Amino acid sequence: MTRMRFSKKQLTALGWWCDTSPHKDRDAIICDGAVRSGKTLCLSLSFALWALCAVGKGEFAICGKTIMSLLRNLIRPLMDALCEIGVPNRLIVSRNRLEIGAGYKIGFSLFGGRDEASASLIQGATFTGALLDEVALMPRSFVEQAIARCSKEEAKIFFSCNPAYPQHWFYREWILGRKEKNALYLRFEMTDNPSLSQAVLDRYKRLYSGPFYERYVLGKWSAVKGLVYPMFSPARHLRESVPHCTRFVVSCDYGTVNPASFGFWGYSAGVWVRLREFYHDSRREGRVFTDEEYADALVSLIGAGSVEAVLVDPSAASFIACLRARGLPAAAARNDVANGIRVVAAALGEGRVCFHVSCVDLIREFSLYRWDERVGGDVPVKRDDHAMDELRYFALEYLSADSGGGGGFWVGGVGRGS
Predict the structure, then answer these.
(1) What is the pTM of this model?
(2) Could you say which of 34, 168, 219, 290 would form a disulfide bridge with 164 (CB–CB 3.0 to 4.6 Å)?
(3) pLDDT, tens digit, for every residue of 215-235?
(4) Cα(326)–Cα(324) distance, rounded to whole angstroms?
């Protein structure tokens, strides 16, 4: 058996509900802060042990941004930890359900809160407690519905998240208002995770810059300003040669009056490379393209080979239909701006994505793509963003953790690709 080690702050999160704890009368706990600080594992283990030992009956909910991310980031590590301490557990994938304890008497329903429609999935249920992981990435309607479902007298709510912007509703209502909510608040730093070596700590510090460094390394709720991708470096991210690639994908931001941007991507030795681009600005060129002309341009961009996916601006239904009529594997991309930017920033920091020097319009937009400081949230200025948009579409499917770390294309929650 591997001996699990916990820091003092992690131990507080693990046992805050115990009879000997000074925090036992709190109704909720909020654990936020740096990535890789161990807050997810200790909070999920705390939730499971509270349900098993302190309550001992009832139904419970575990919620994440998506079922896939929940299974990978929380459920699998939790099951391993429960096995380490001798607690029987099983996952019933077909029912999105985790059961633990002797006879598997404690049940946890799993939910994904990825958009506003997700609130209907949890509506009508009754739970004794809920754990909401990555709560800052969930729609408010889903979070409030999950909280409302915990109507039992002994109910408690467990929250975890990485920081976002200071105007975020969860920060203002739950963290700043934690006294009124009767919630325990613990802010985690990377150093609160005793399993991380100094080399790993130093590597994570090098991955991020700007507001991403303040949020994911320092654990602060910080406002965004300046360039969206200050970590983009021509010396690090631009390639002059074309590598040998084994897989190919196209991402498209469609525009008639506004510019259209298509990127042709290749996968080479663990890195996705934007090999070439098509960019048409009707105002600059003095000509508006039809769907068929854009489809011709896309076919020319692909060349003699084939692609496993064509990810298209979800608002461009007619263009998607046009591409499918030509036998191309076109599908509507996910347009999650904040999450997409986070994924792109992480991939740039880790060196998992780069760009051929011929992609001049994308390179130009990197130097112009800025946060809209007038809005007060994670919102970029809607200008010089068309290549940036299709970069996000590609990143959410092929560079995010939800895609299996850069390998698969997901349609309706079903993976296609390796």
Answers:
(1) 0.78
(2) 168
(3) 988 899 998 889 999 999 999
(4) 5
